[in-house]
Amino acid sequence: MVALQKWEPEDELFWEEEGKKRASRNLWISISALFLAFAVWQIWSVIAANLNDIGFAYTESELFLLTALPGLTGATLRILYTFLVPIFGGRNWTIISTASLLLPAIGIGFAVQNPSTPFITMAILAALCGFGGGNFASSMANISFFYPKKAKGTALGLNAGIGNLGVSAVQLLAPLVITVALFGTLTGAPQILGDGSEVFMQNAAFIWVVPIVLTVVAAFFGMDNLPGMRASVKEQAVIFKNKHTWIMTWLYTMCFGSFIGYAAAFPLLTRTEFPEINVFQIAFIGPLLGALVRPVGGWLSDKLGGAFVTFWDIILLTVATLGVMYFYNIGNFTGFLTMFIIVFIATGIANGSTFRMIPFIFVQKEAAVVLGFTSAIAAYGAFLIPMLFGWSIDKTGMANLALIIFIGYYLVSLAMHWYFYSRKNAEVKC
């Protein structure tokens, strides 16, 4: 592919004649790569809840740990990945980071077939799924370079929103594909459940291998490294001197950390507290809706302002989480599920609105790095939320303590957002 010599998306003539078409192509390949990254990152939200049914003998704490580990490694890798696009180039890094997803996808496919697989092996494979989590930071930073300010909210919303659909996709498809010999005998024998029926748990991992390979090929031939975007880590590290980097990191953790953490914990939490419910028939709904409305959050913010949308959305998120706790305590699953779905929708909208705020607070090169860094810290929600639920249940027998902590976090977020971005004389209007 011929290297680009010029990229000026704010130049209206350049954008209409060349920029828009090329940016769109890069965006859709990026979306495909990010979709697969999220699917691999969240694969343990399904597998962990099924392991003991196929002969494993892990404790509840160990299962919650397997669910949480991809969040820990994914968030940590995001910190690194944040700085890699300006160093390697967006196309180059998309190829490398997407290809890395093959390691956990193939490894898990073999490991789940043997109930004597040591827990440490499973933990390592869970940690490797963090490759998928790390990809978000570099993907969002890369796509932010392609678009003018007027279109960043929608573009970033599409990249993240459709990419986030990988979470619901794995929770929807995995329970289906494990019931059939999808690859015949090529990928191994079935496992036998207590009732004598057969499942192919390996399919939950192997199903992503071919799409990963195809997306790597598409990135190789269809994506671009943009000129003028190279920068060292030292040059990018200037963002840490700006207090708004830390404020937006706190706010994005509030929404995306909640989205990805609840997505990881919801199946196992529901199965623990409402054992009569077949959680795998409904676990995908919340993450699906949360992902679908993320572009809406970006679009609304382009129209109404990111600060306005975020402020009211935090209120919705707080009220809905209170609703989750209320219906959880009275044992009403319908209310519990409804409130959780509203929580997912609220997090999805705020994911889009906060990311639209960042390009208006920072100059372009800094904005791209801030997008990556905030997503890195926020991704620790995928580790902390399952762990807090597990800790709360272990200590008190209920999830209430964890939910109270989350509600407190949202109230602090609301106050911070109002002071810096929403009040009449706010420091920054965005």
Strands, count: 2
| N/C terminus separation | 38 Å
Shape-level CATH architecture: Up-down Bundle
Mind telling me the CATH class? Mainly Alpha
By secondary-structure content and strand pairing, the structural class works out as: mainly alpha
Shape: globular
Rg over CA atoms, rounded to whole Å, is 21 Å
Give the topology string: H per helix, E per strand. HHHHHHHHHEEHHHHHHHHHH
Q: Any idea what the CATH superfamily is called?
A: MFS general substrate transporter like domains
As laid out across the biggest beta sheet, the strand order is 1-2
Can you summarize the main beta sheet?
Answer: 2 strands, antiparallel
Q: What is the helix content?
A: over 70%
Count the DSSP helices. Answer: 19
The CATH topology corresponds to: Growth Hormone, Chain: A
Topology of helices and strands:
Layout: H1 12-41, H2 44-47, H3 60-81, H4 85-88, H5 90-99, H6 102-111, H7 119-128, H8 130-146, H9 149-177, E1 191-192, E2 198-199, H10 203-206, H11 209-222, H12 233-236, H13 243-273, H14 285-304, H15 306-329, H16 333-361, H17 364-378, H18 381-396, H19 400-422
Antiparallel strand pairs: 1-2
Description:
The protein has helices at 12-41, 44-47, 60-81, 85-88, 90-99, 102-111, 119-128, 130-146, 149-177, 203-206, 209-222, 233-236, 243-273, 285-304, 306-329, 333-361, 364-378, 381-396, 400-422, and strands spanning 191-192, 198-199. By secondary structure, it is mainly α. It has a single domain, classed as Growth Hormone, Chain: A, CATH 1.20.1250.20. Strands 1-2 form a two-stranded antiparallel ribbon. Strand 1 (191-192) and strand 2 (198-199) form a beta hairpin. Helix 3 (60-81) packs antiparallel against helix 18, helix 8 runs antiparallel to helix 17 and helix 14 packs antiparallel against helix 15. The longest helix has 31 residues, at 243-273. It is globular. The model has no long low-confidence stretch (mean pLDDT 90).
